[in-house]
Design goal:
Number of domains: 1
CATH topology: Rossmann fold
Strand content: 5-15%
CATH superfamily: P-loop containing nucleotide triphosphate hydrolases
Distance between the termini: 40 Å
Largest sheet: 5 strands, parallel
CATH architecture: 3-Layer(aba) Sandwich
Number of helices: 8
Structural class: alpha/beta
Bound molecules: adenosine-5'-triphosphate, magnesium ion
Number of strands: 5
Length: 194
């Protein structure tokens, strides 16, 4: 059976519950307001800060609000982690692979009205950023930049100065022109007794 569209776009399961309503804004007032302002003024936002402080939650809240407002079928937004993006592209180089190629993925990530790229700069699959990581990071950002500053929501643990190691300095520079970095601080929500 085909996957529901909500899952394909990255908003299935628990992601569907990460909304502005389920976010407690007290400790992240600035980031919360910036995220809300995206709905009226869709400019790129990069949420930067340590683990567990609500970066991904706010990114998903924006996406869920857009789906709620514009309808699922118009597919206004897609959510993907940078790791998954790299993994999908790597698959396209494997012998016997018969799915869509790298250029199709890049075209999809260029064309979607709002692209949420989660966990850029996270060491997982990549022990350190490789040339491949940097090339794809650059291609994704530059593709949207050249398409007329199509907005992105990015979450990262890296300060702007280090983010260039993962997606190139050129991409970080373009992000500054397309929008703004929102620096977040605080204790991990995951470790906060409630
Ligand atoms: N202010 C908040 N109100 C309600 N839930 C929150 C808040 N901040 C974080 N959470 C919850 O805490 C968990 C961690 O938040 P989130 O996934 O957004 O962290 P993150 O900043 O993306 O961290 P990481 O860098 O580790 O990915 C999630 O389940 C999220 O829903
Ligand atoms: Mg996160």
């Amino acid at each position: 059976m085909a996957k529901p569209l909500r899952d394909v776009l990255g908003f299935g399961g628990a992601a569907g519950g990460k909304t502005f309503e389920s976010f407690r804004p007290e400790t992240q007032r600035v980031a919360y307001e910036k995220a809300k302002s995206f709905l009226d003024d869709p400019r790129t936002l990069i949420f930067e800060g340590p683990n567990g402080i609500g970066k991904t939650h706010l990114a998903l809240a924006i996406g869920n609000a857009l789906i709620e407002r514009d309808g699922l079928n118009l597919a206004p937004v897609c959510f993907i982690t940078f790791q998954d993006a790299l993994r999908q592209l790597r698959k396209t180089y494997q012998d016997g692979y018969e799915g869509i190629g790298e250029e199709c993925y890049l075209a999809k990530w260029r064309g979607i009205p709002v692209l949420i790229l989660d966990e850029v700069g996270l060491r997982g699959l990549e022990q350190a950023p490789s040339e491949f990581t940097r090339r794809i990071g650059y291609d994704i950002v530059d593709g949207r930049y050249r398409a007329g500053h199509r907005p992105m929501i990015i979450t990262t643990n890296k300060k702007p100065a280090q983010l260039g190691d993962w997606i190139t300095e050129s991409a970080v520079d373009r992000l500054f022109e397309m929008g703004e970095f929102v620096s977040m601080e605080g204790r991990s929500w995951r470790r906060t007794p409630r």
